[in-house]
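Query form — protein ClpP/crotonase

QUESTION: What is the three-dimensional structure of this chain?
INPUT:
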Amino acid sequence: MMKHLFSLAASLGAIGASIVSQKSARGTLTFTYSPNITRVTISNPPINVFDANLASDLLEFLLSIQPSNTMPLSPPKVVILASADADFFIPHIDLLSILPPQTAAKTAFLDSCTQVTALLRNTTTTVFITEIDGRASGIGDEILLQTDLRFAGPGARLSQLETAVGVFPGGGGMKALPSQISRARALQYALTNEAVGGAKAADLGWVNGYFDSKETLRMGVDEVARKIALRPAGALEGAKRALPRLYPHEAEYEDDLKKFSDLAGSEETAALVKGYIELSENQTRGWFELGVPESLEELF
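ANSWER: The structure tokens for ClpP/crotonase are given below.
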């Protein structure tokens, strides 16, 4: 189904048409197609938690744009990731997934999380741009860190909350952030869970640029995407491949996932996660989720 939609969109895009409001299989993503550009808008109420549905939809999309002999049409030159929620990009994974007991379904979900970040990190045939104007913490921040270009608006708040619930950024965040803002700063933000606004994130190098309104953010991202989409696909891929490899071997990500899973199974982590779920009224929009990371102090 996903490959069919992608092929249809690419065909129409080639003649200057566009498709709007095409939904993913589970309804958590909306795709807007234009020539060589796909805008992916996340909408997974109540607050865009990265759950099994969102992980599956995003994974299926990323797999569908991998070049293959069975897909004669080229993948999009640019993919823009954005959110339909003004307050949240992706706040964190579904914390219920790391509560004991560990099941086959929970293991498969965590594996899909690492597959998503790996595809964002390693796909060279598409340039990924994140447009962020809400909260991105935990895997939300890890996802945006795996994308190629990142632009923030006035509502952006970036953070890593994992250590507050007894784990650590195991989806690639601790590998990617140091190359952007320095090792010492990355460790500071991971250990204290402090949030960074859009303007400061741009100053630090966490994002490429900052726009002072939602409207200029959207316009700015679209303009960057438009310019990139005009370049030959081979040149874009060559540029991405030619970049020095900043990331370690993929086996190190697998090791991180194992360590993350081991920590998730501890009694201390389980107690903190249960406290988070209770205070957040099961990860819904309220004072606790809107107050992260400051509200995390209530866990202690």
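ADDITIONAL NOTE: The longest strand covers residues 29-34.
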